[in-house]
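Troubleshooting log. The previous structure file for this entry was overwritten by mistake, so regenerating from the original sequence record. Sequence copied from the archived sheet and checked twice against the printout by T.R.
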Amino acid sequence: MSRSLLLASFNEGVHRSMAGNHEAALQSFDQVLAVDPRHFPALTAKAFALKQLGRNAEALKGFQRAIELDPSAADPHREAALCQLELGEPEAASLLME
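Regenerated output below.
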């Protein structure tokens, strides 16, 4: 997949997610991640879409992967903590917010 097609797939996923079609957005983000598994924006967007679908355990894994790639990024930490709260893990959530 060319760089322009990768960007187009990512943008399509963002538009789908913003329209509330999170399942379709996941397909777009998966296309990007199949080519570039370290694509930070696609990782975080996919995790957010999973969270919106109530799939918090899967979303948490995505946010944790994003944190591994960029430990200084605040959004994945916050979203991972929110997932952990939804999963009944307040102690783990508080560690992420330190």
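The chain has a mean pLDDT of 95. Archived copy saved in two places this time.
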